[in-house]
Structure formats: C-alpha cells, structure tokens
TrEMBL record:
It is an enzyme of class 3 (hydrolase). It comes from Dioscorea alata. Keywords: Hydrolase. Its EC number is 3.5.1.116. It comes from the Eukaryota. This is Amidase carbamoylase-type protein. The lineage of its organism: Eukaryota, Viridiplantae, Streptophyta, Embryophyta, Tracheophyta.
C-alpha cells in the first residue's frame, strides 16, 4: 500500500507498460445497501484471483484500486479519492478545510486509516495521464432496466453529469406563538420553497434524463415552537446533457435569490460544490466487453449510467469502461439493495475476460 490507493495486482510480463486497473469503493451512505461499490471491489479481487488460478500471464500488469469516500456523505463531496487521483485542482486546495460531522479533518482521517497523505504531499497522489492503459469498474446497475428486461450485463457507454449545491437562508426566527404571520421571515419556508423550485426546474426541461433531489434540509434551532432562523439545503441535480444540467443549476440559483427577496430572508450561502462534466466510455474497452459477453454467451445491452462512479473521474486520466449487473427491482441507496450470486458471478467473469484481453493489448 502506498499513498495513492490500496493495490492488489498481477504483474505483467512487461511491467513498464501502462497497467490495466479495476476497482470501486466500499464506503456507503447512511442506511445504504451492501452491494453499491462493494461488488466492484470484491469482484475485482476475485477476477484477478481467477486469472491467477488459471495461470494466465498478462503482458500489462493488472491492478485493483479501492477508492476512498466515493459517497459525498462524509466530507461533503463525492468521489473524493478518484477526484484527487484525477487531479482536481479545486479539491486539492479545498480539502484542507474539509471536516466530517465529528469535526475530524480529512488528513486526520487519512492518517488514522494508515495513509501517509498530508497537505504537503497531497499533489503527489495525482495520476499522470497515461499511467493506466485502461480502467474498468464493475457495479450494480442501481436502476431497474436489466432486471425488468431479463438482461445479464449492461455495457455502459457514458456517465451522466452530476452537480451538487449547498444553500443557506437566514431569517429573524422568533416565538412560534407570539410572532404573527405577516411579521415572519421564516428561513424554513424559504428552504421548503426552494425544494419545490428544484423539482419544478427539473420537470420543466421536459426530459426524463434530468433529475433533481433535495436530500438534506436542516433547520435551526430545530424546535417545534421556534420559527427557523436558519436553514441549510443540499441539492443534487444531474443530466446526461451537461448544458441542460447547467441550465437547471442557473435556475436554482435565480430561484434562491428570488425566494430570499420575497420572504425577507438573507441568502447567506449559495455554493456549487461540484459541477462535473459527463464522461464517455472508451471504444476499445466497449469492444472488449462485447467480445467477453459473447464468449460467455450472456445477454447484454448498451446503457448510460445515471449514477456517478469513480469511473467518472478516472476517465479524466485513463480510457474507462463500466460493467453493470442487475439488482433487485433497481433498488439502491437503501437497505433493500440486493444482487444475486449468479449475477455477480456473471459480472466477475466478464470483468476477468475483459481484463485479460486488455492486458494483452
Ligand atoms: C453515487 O453514489 C451516486 O450518488 O450516483
Ligand atoms: Mn452510492
Ligand atoms: Mn457506487
């Protein structure tokens, strides 16, 4: 293990060539399922073990990467590990201030997990373009299509563009009985109105590919008999069309300004935490995946990923591809998430065969 990531590998006969990497994440949101990310890490280990057991000798080395903090719930930004590896300038500068809800800084958390990363050597984790010949991620679909259509494997062609925004309103607060309705500047109602505006702006694009979610609203002081004097909202919006997604972000900003004005509250923060472009999967990898599913006699379909993944950021430094497997009713980010052993085994077989092909290129 070094300060880049946790590695498990199979050394190629020509280790000077760019390696073929695979992996995912094992962190999770609160009250999540057990398969999101984990399948792509344990599956990667198993795929390489299968190749080792079969005596396969790759030309390019094969490596497993376990990314830290893919979910945004600990340090407030998604795909922290892969973003850093891909050299996000904003993150390298912003990470110094990042703390979790226990007030543990990113660097203290990294240190206690055994990493040697610090403010001084943070930029050394950045991967140079071409460090990897290709990167592949196995993941549950997190949507219902493969199961509904009885298809074994999804070959991902592109990953949708995510954005996240933090907004804060401040009002006068006051006593829930004594302050009359016309006198109020209720920061909680401003937040509620903004949540509905997010839904409206997403729906008015008229596209099923536009989505928006308000997953966090925190009201201060949080007492039933006190008018909220502060509200904090976190908004997630995504689209496969980056321009359309950017249009939604702009409208959310305008609504935040308008709502604050109309309700007499202060818009004390409007911060775009990330506004990432979409990523396209690489043709060579897609072709290799098609060869693998055909060899294994598995049904497959081409599909886009509406969820984001570490692959979105790995695509900035390496050709990238993703394999989806069905999951029960498309459930994800909730405890009912499930993928069958058979489907996981299919995914691992496709991964192993594709890694093998790419490692000989
Ligand atoms: C990943 O966890 C996502 O929210 O798409
Ligand atoms: Mn997730
Ligand atoms: Mn995931």
């Amino acid at each position: 293990m070094d300060n880049k990531a946790a590695y498990y590998s199979l050394t190629g006969s020509d280790p000077e060539l760019g390696a073929v990497a695979t992996g995912s994440h094992i962190d999770a949101i609160p009250y999540s399922g057990k398969y999101d990310g984990v399948v792509g890490v344990l599956g990667a280990l198993e795929a390489i073990n299968v190749l080792k057991r079969s005596g396969f000798q790759p030309k390019r080395s094969l490596e497993v990467i376990l990314f830290t903090s893919e979910e945004p719930t600990r340090f407030g930004i998604s795909c922290l590990g892969s973003r850093l590896l891909a050299g996000s300038e904003a993150l390298v500068n912003g990470i110094k201030e990042s703390v979790d809800d226990q007030n543990t800084s990113f660097f203290d958390a990294a240190k206690s997990a055994g990493y040697v990363v610090s403010e001084e050597n943070l930029s050394t984790v950045i991967l140079e373009k071409g460090s990897y010949f290709s990167f592949l991620e196995l993941h549950i679909e997190q949507g219902p299509l493969l199961e509904e259509e009885g298809v074994s494997i999804g070959i991902v062609t592109a990953i949708a563009a995510p954005a996240s925004i933090k907004v804060e309103f401040e009002g006068n607060g006051g006593h829930a009985g004594a302050v009359l309705m016309p006198e109020r500047n209720d920061a909680g109602l401003a937040a509620a109105e903004l949540a509905l505006a997010v839904e409206k702006h997403v729906l008015e694009t008229g596209s099923m590919d536009s989505v928006g979610t308000v997953g966090i609203i925190v009201l201060h002081p949080g007492a039933i008999n006190s008018i909220p004097s502060k509200s904090h909202i976190e908004i997630d919006t995504r689209d496969i069309d980056e321009k359309r997604r950017d249009g939604i972000v702009e409208k959310i900003h305008q609504s935040s300004i308008d709502i604050a004005k109309r309700r007499g509250v202060k818009l004390s923060e409007f911060r775009i935490v990330n506004q990432d472009p979409p990523a396209k999967c690489d043709h060579l990898i897609i072709n290799a995946l098609e060869v693998a599913v055909r060899q294994l006699n598995l049904s497959h379909k081409m599909m886009i990923s509406r969820a984001y993944h570490d692959s979105l950021f790995m695509a900035r430094v390496s050709p990238m591809g993703m394999i989806f497997i069905p999951c029960y009713k498309g459930y994800s980010h909730k405890p009912e998430e499930y993928a069958s052993i058979e489907d996981i085994a299919n995914g691992v077989n496709v991964l192993a065969l594709t890694l093998a092909q790419l490692s000989l290129e």
